[in-house]
Amino acid sequence: MKIVNNIKSSFAAKLSFMLFIGTFIVVTCVYAINNFRTRNHMVKEAVKDNAAMVDLFISKIGKEINLVEHNIKSRDMLFKEYYKKRDVDALDAMIKDVAKECNVREVFYALRPRGERTYMADALKEPDGKINVMRRTRNYKYYLHTYYLVPEKYQKDYWTAPYFTTIASQRAITFSHPIIDTTGDMIAVLGADILLETLTDTLSANVAKHSPIKGSYLMLVSKDGRYLAHPDKKKIANETYITDARENDCPELEIIVRKILDGESGNCIANLYGQRTIVTYAQMPELEWGIMLATPYDTITSVILEYIILSFVLMFIGFLIMGFVIYRIIWSMSKPLNVYSHASARIAAGDFDTPVEMTFSSGDELEKLGKDMDDMRVKLKNYYEDIQISAAQRESMEKELSIAHDIQMSMLPVESEVSLSNEYVKVNGYLNPAKEVGGDLWQYMLKDGKLMFIIGDVSGKGVPASLVMAQTVCLFKAQDADSSPLDLVMLINSLLSENNERNMFETLIVGKLDLSDGKLSFCNAGHDPMLLVRDGKVEEIPMNRNLPVGLIEDFQYRIDSLTMQPGDKILLYTDGIPEAENEMKELYSLKRLENALLENCEASTEGIIHSIREDLHKYVESAPQSDDITMVCINYRKMISNTENLTRTIVFKNQMSEVSRIAEFIEGIGEELSIDFSVMNGIQLAIEEAVVNIINYAYPDKTDCDSSLRVNFKDNVLTFILTDSGIPFDPTGKQDPDVSLDISDRPIGGLGIFLVKKIMNEVSYEYISEQNVLTMKKELKTK
Amino acid sequence: MATTKIVIEGNKATLVLEGRLDTPSAPQVEQDIKPLYGDGLETLLIDCSAMKYISSSGIRIIISLYKFFSKKGGEVIVKGLTPEVKEVFDMTGLLDIFKIED
Asked: Rounded to 5 degrees, what angle do the CA atoms A251, A257, A262 make?
């Protein structure tokens, strides 16, 4: 498994492995085809070789035989000469010579018997090479042997069939030559014995030695069908081919031998002794022997197989070595890839600082790849840094945008809180921006009994719209109670029109409601008209529509007015409400808004806003909000009576009896302004303390000195101004008594001024034109 | 104007204050309650349920009484404070000192 994994993960191993397998397959195929061809070729070669060898054997045996025949025959004349002379010694010497010259066992001559007389001499060659001439006894009846009888009878040379020699007990053949005299009678037979072994054994050895294919063997068959040479030595001279063929069930052998004995030659494939065998055969002309050279098929195949196995093993080893060498080469050449792989993993992990190692210079694509990779790393690094910087910039921009949103929203009244509610007027509003920073606005302020309000919608959305909106709200807030809505609209228009290259514009309604008489003056700059709810009816307030601000710098806007009666309500809204779309792209419409308002005309201002929101929500369902939605509801409740902005003054003497008169004076103001008893009680106490202070201490030596108390009520604040022309004294400078002290440690007095400070919201002292002026302010809580 | 009523039973006295105890009426009240500065009294109950108003001069009178009684180990109990008067008692730290009864 480890090796498989190695091969899978290593480029060099993979490539080498594939090369190894590929080459191995190709070479094996080529080799297999080649082997098949080789086998056929070898068979052909074997046949050819065998034929050549058979020819060689025939000629070799022929040569031996011819040598013997020639030597014997060439002594014919000489024999006759010596015979005539009856020179026995010369004859002996002659056969001795022949024996010396030829590879024979013995050379003999046998005279034609005359009556009882026989004569035969042998030159016998001993194994050590000595040649002894011996004479046969009379008992040896040579004239009865074929080697004598056949030449005598036919007067022709004769080769005997193989036989066992009596002397050497060896297989031999004999050549005999008849010596014929001039009368035509045979006088003697001159001959020689050749040991068969000298012919066949050398041949067999030759076959074993020289045949290219081991396992080939030689068979010789004599004219009479006996084996002269055979791998099974027992069969030699003992068995004929016929018995052999029949015993071993080789009918083809019998056929082949017959063909040979008939004088044919050639080759064939036959089944000999259970083996497919290539047989090359021929006949020896001199002796009419048959010669067969047999090569079993299997031996050829086994030779080839042996060859295949050997070369296959060698080839496999060679491939293994080659594979390893290729692996090492590829490994060393592809080493940069390994380095790059690590480098790219590092880069992928975010390490842009470590350079790609370039410790080699191969000058090829791999080196270029490394350089390119390092370039890429540097570029990535720069790019990454740029991205980080821009991400930080964007983050800070988003943060600033979010701050802008907070600032913008802080300029508008908070929706959830009851914006303004006193006994005279109640104002509620709702603003829901479609985008983070929107263009709708509304605001109100109450100044000197006048409610001023604004609602607007800046064209476009987002930051530009919000900036215009912020500017508008700031200008609105800077107004005072005396300014007219028309002035504000004109101011905003002129400021917005100036350098208005982006053509931003804004629709507005600016209004001012005088709470004392219900007089509403307002200026509409292209905004949707207000709706009035009066006596259970809803109507659109008729008004000049004018142009939105920001379009024409010197446009003359016109102001409208309406007198509101206590109980009247007005509803202001931006176009986000009537133009809100449901999923079917149908508008909510002004009609639906008027109906929703009518259904809830008796509800409170927050109730009306809540109901319209619900109705709008129900209509729109899940459709996305496309525009800012703003609405403001103002309920005029009650006129501020004239008395509520009053000023009263009382002048008093420095006599204690005046305290009661002042108390009555204060009580009167309390009744006039309908101030709570508990609040009035505190005020009574504070004023008494301040007045008593003057009466007791301002004029130590005189009586009948005047001091005055002026009371003013404005914006829910009661202001008391005590003025005396006595000795300068700042009561506010006096240290407060510590009321947490135990009573026994506390001085009995000094509580007066302390109580004044406790009760009043603001106490201040001034010494102006030789007069002590003590100003005390008390804020009254709205009911 | 304030009126006073004093009831003494053994060592226990009851002072009933009525009306407005303001600076002008304070000297008269001081005169009227002189019997309370006698020996033998240990407990003083001040009934304020009919007192509508008190100024610092009135507070001074009550503090004087308290000092006198507490010096000899006696006790001053204030009863029936109206919300307005109670507020003044609160501002001047008297609520923590007196034993207050409804």
From this structure: 130
